[in-house]
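dude i think i finally got it to work??
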Amino acid sequence: MAKTNLGYLPRGNPCAQCGRPIASPDWIENGPGRVSYLWTCRACDYRFEAVAFFDESEAEREPLAA
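look at this
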């Protein structure tokens, strides 16, 4: 199971359309128990989103307001 590590930036993800590697995501969005990546292929101009979901016990919990 993947761990939540925001210092890790995925690189070389293959394009979902043509399969060529993409250097890095255009956008990264963190949410509770997940990280979303927006990828754009420069070779074929295809855009897609990939989402990583984490085990609830490994997800960072936001503090409760006092």
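Strands lie at 13-14, 21-22, 27-31, 34-40, 47-53.
im so relieved honestly
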